[in-house]
Amino acid sequence: MKHLLLFACFLYSLTNISQEIKSPSEFLGYELGTQFTRHHEVVDYYEYLAEAAADRVQLTTYGKTNERRPLILAYVSSATNIKNIESIREDHLKSTTGTGNSSKAIVWLSYNVHGNESVSTEASMQTIYELLTNKADYLENTVVIIDPCINPDGRDRYVNWYNENKNTPNNVDPNSKEHREGWLSGRANHYMFDLNRDWAWLTQVESQQRLKMYNQWLPHVHVDFHEQGVNNPYYFAPAAEPFHEVITDFQRDFQVTIGKNHAKYFDAKGWFYFTKEVFDLLYPSYGDTYPMYNGSIGMTYEQGGSGRAGLGIITGIGDTLTLKDRIDHHFTTGISTVEVAAGNSKKLNDEFRKFYQPKNYKYKSYVLNGDADKIRALTTLLDQHQIVYGSGNGSSVKGFDYASGKSGSSKTSSNSLVISTNQTKGTLVKVLFEPNAKLSDSLTYDITAWSLPYAYGLDAIASESLVGNSSYATEKNTDTPLDPQAYAYITDWNSMDDARFLAELLKEGVRVRYTDKPFTLSGKKYDRGSLIITNADNKNKKDFLQLLEASARNNNKSLTATTTGFVDGGKDFGSSSVQMVSDTKIAVLSGEPTSTLQFGEIWHFFEQQLKYPVSILDSDYWKQVDLSKYDVLVLPNGWYGSSFNDGQLQRLKDWVKSGGKLIAMGGAIKGIDGENGFGIKARESKKDTTLSLESYDVSERESIKNAITGAIFKTNVDTTHPLAYGYKDTYFSLKLGDDAYEYLDKGTVVHLDKATMPVAGFAGSEAQKKIGKTLIFGVENYGRGQVVYMVDNPLFRGFWENGKLFFVNALFMVN
């Protein structure tokens, strides 16, 4: 009788809790899945839960988006756990040092990183409600962290678009407008960046703010909820090959454990699903891999639907897929994940501690040397990841030399950056810095190379021994007043700090010159591109010195004052070799046929990195714009095809001939080449006419012979050309495909020679043959103007730091 009474009390308690807390449908005033919920309404529901169940829900706002929408996290657990939430967090983090005695499982559920994959935010509300009611027992030994919407700007863009364009009632016909989202889709954030590829690079405010919170917890399990094509069944872990070699056996096995639990529920409902296909675990900047490299069980869950599905759509086999269906599937895997974690909390804690034990990786230390600005930019990223580093102490180091691809040696100094794998984030260090990630399978979902020494343009040695180091002190520019009697002030041109310094001066109306020949003055050598700011050029600007000092301080620049323009060697400051940087008015094309993401890279670069004004001309009306108002027009990568008819192409040619500068990136080159275009010529691949029969099953693998999946190539640079100011004679370029163009007759600035084996990443054998002796970056003079060709993308995802100065040179130095 006593047990019956206890059971009755338990049932009453659950029923009472359910009655006290409103479901999402009750709170919102419509059945979940019959409408899309705007972000502010989602936040309202979570705030309601934090008040109605204050003992079990703790809500925090961890930041804001570019469009000022709040980013929130909900901590959900038992009343006792919420009361002790901080001590639970601290005890859990002690596991990374081999101490502590944590017994709680930490599960982090991330929803809606892609804004138009909109079901997951809806599912998050049903999931938290279920955890607080019918599945409250899971929370006794588990803390669940829910991010209901990683990308609020993208989500609201999609939801608002859908509400504006849907039929009433909604129409399941795939051809109806509500299923045809336009160029400006909701997938990306405000700046058209894919946040699911930004975990490691942290270029976006959402990623930067989220990672601060993530590093405070380092959960045992992290799930990233997604959607895929309408006709695809559900995908959940285990993932596909290639797995990065640092992923542990336990991480792989636990993915299987979770997957089998999901399958149990899906099988009972007759729902279709697949595992071990497509979605691999290699590229480090995903919402599954980045957590993996920090000790979590990182997983991607993919529901069929995405931006096309709306509230309901007819699939390819004639079934109707509804938003309610999609919610049910994501809800099921979310609850199943928490269930498995709750049932394995001891194992998760034990294995988490093991993950952070010292590892015997081949390379124990990475030693980097080079431009101080580039090293400082890298240390900023390392700080965000809580990666520890130091400076050299004068010791010699031997190991793999990134520049030569062979064994090499160097001597460290106080300016050297030393990063060891012998630290808490040692596994992440290996993944981000290793020269070439090991590939267990060449069929991958994303790029296969990203090594940070190449990305930041730094000389590096990977050592198999631990390299001694001292604490690193980042050099700061001393705020020294400038001599008002100086003839001129000189500074170098090597990095994005230099570019931002120039951009700030130009915006303030300060006149700046640069040299196109090296010179020496007072025993110091200045390379091509060095900036020269004279008092005479700015004599009518009353606040000139204050502006110059402020800009130098803001951008960490040191200025050398000189009392003369008479140089010791080279060209004097009055020479035609010392030219004025013009006040450049820049426009960039948006809309079809440009790539949304590549347009976003350029937009973000101007506004958040270079901080220089840009006009955005949409393809809907750009043909009516007077191009003579602009000095530069940027054509982002995209699918141009025949987007420019003969008349439009002639208009561009006339504008360039009159002095305009056209920067064509990636696929945009295909829109302006050919018989009626400019002078660049595409390299045609040589077709193998030999009849080859192959089985259907191997055809996909055969096709990758023609693919380059984000590999790094060593290229040659003409350092005398203005496009290459600030660069050495070699550049490591990230190549994303096999588009190939012949050398220009004049103006080939960066190119591949006939040796095309990548230094890192995968490139198919046929693709390598095609790209031999081809252009990477070049400039064609055309009339009084220029066309700048960028076959590879120097702004890729905002993280290829060493490519950015090429783009700035194209804007300001090429003339």
Instruction: Report the portion of residues in β strands.
Output: 15-25%
Low-confidence stretches: 4-18
CATH superfamily descriptor of the largest domain: Zn peptidases
**Which structural class matches the secondary elements?**
alpha/beta
Label the CATH architecture of the largest domain: 3-Layer(aba) Sandwich
Helix share, percent: 25-40%
Key attributes of the depicted protein:
815 residues; alpha/beta; Aminopeptidase; 9-stranded mixed sheet; 7-stranded antiparallel sheet; 35 strands
Account of the protein in words:
With 815 residues, the chain is of the alpha/beta class. The protein folds into four domains: 2-355, 3-Layer(aba) Sandwich (Aminopeptidase); 365-471, no CATH class; 488-580, no CATH class; 586-684 and 707-812, Class I glutamine amidotransferase (GATase) domain (Rossmann fold, 3-Layer(aba) Sandwich). It has 23 helices and 35 strands. The strands form eight sheets. The protein has a nine-stranded mixed sheet, with helices on both faces. Helix 6 (119-132) packs across helix 12 (323-343). The protein is globular.
